[in-house]
Amino acid sequence: MRIARTAADLRLSPQGSVGLVPTMGAFHEGHLSLFRAARAENDQVVVSLFVNLAQFGAGEDLERYPRDEEHDARLAEQEGVDVLFVPAADEIYPPGFQTWVEVEHLGSILEGVHRPGHFRAVSTVCLKLFNLVRPDRAYFGQKDAQQAAVIKRMVGDLAVPVEIRVCPTVRDGDGLALSSRNAYLSPDERAHALALPSALQAGDRSLLNGLEVDYFVEADFEPRVRAAAVRVGQTRLIDNVVLEGDNR
């Protein structure tokens, strides 16, 4: 596996298909499942590792967001990734950067209400990565259902020649969806956080009593989901379940 830090370092073969997995690092089994899906369907696999400062709002966890490039590189290599793309901030946002991509409706609801500007930054960085890597397919997790919907809309609206593949949510044995932010939870907080997947599965918001709830709704994405965001202590968690009969 090669580690590339600039666009010039990417040096992908013009032959064969390319799969891209955009990430912010702190790899866990959810990320690895995306790497495996990309490996199974493409001749070359590129994983980007970039903590996108623009998608963190004021008071969010940019500074404490988990970072361990050496560990992430080791896991990526074990999964057969060909190139780990680890750009510096000025490689993605060069001096004077002022062009942003905004998916108006999908980016302004749910997470967009609670994290203004978040999806503008996500859409922009993903389009930048698509332009740099030129993948045939890009892989995202169902856990971030709204993110996947926003990226699909952007790709369709702007005729970006990439297929968006959304892979199933990976959960721990206790049902909690894997997330890099789970590392913030104390044992007691994690026990309380289990109310989130339980409430989603049951369709019963009352199971979230005791947690601060940002939203608990059905969202008409593709597929349609029941989605929620809660705060457990200082940690904000999101999750969703695909509604029965909509497993496209």
Short summary:
This protein has 248 residues and is α/β, with parallel strands linked by helices. The chain has 9 helices and 9 strands.
Please provide a written account of the structure:
The chain is of the alpha/beta class and 248 residues long. It has nine helices and nine strands. Strand 3 (44-49), helix 3 and strand 4 (83-85) form a beta-alpha-beta unit. It starts with a strand and ends in a 6-residue tail after the last strand. The model has no long low-confidence stretch (mean pLDDT 96).
Features:
248 residues; alpha/beta; six-stranded parallel beta sheet; 9 strands; 21% strand
Largest sheet: 6 strands, parallel
> How far is it from the N-terminal to the C-terminal residue, by CA?
33 Å
SS-based structural class?
A: alpha/beta
Rg, Å, rounded:
18 Å
Strand arrangement across the biggest beta sheet: 1-4-3-2-5-6
Question: Helix coverage percent of residues?
Answer: 25-40%
Low-confidence stretches: none
Total helices: the number is 9
Strand content: 15-25%
Shape from CA axes? globular
User: How many β strands by DSSP?
Assistant: 9
| SSE pattern | EHEHEHEHHHEHEHHEEE
Summarize model confidence as the mean pLDDT: 96
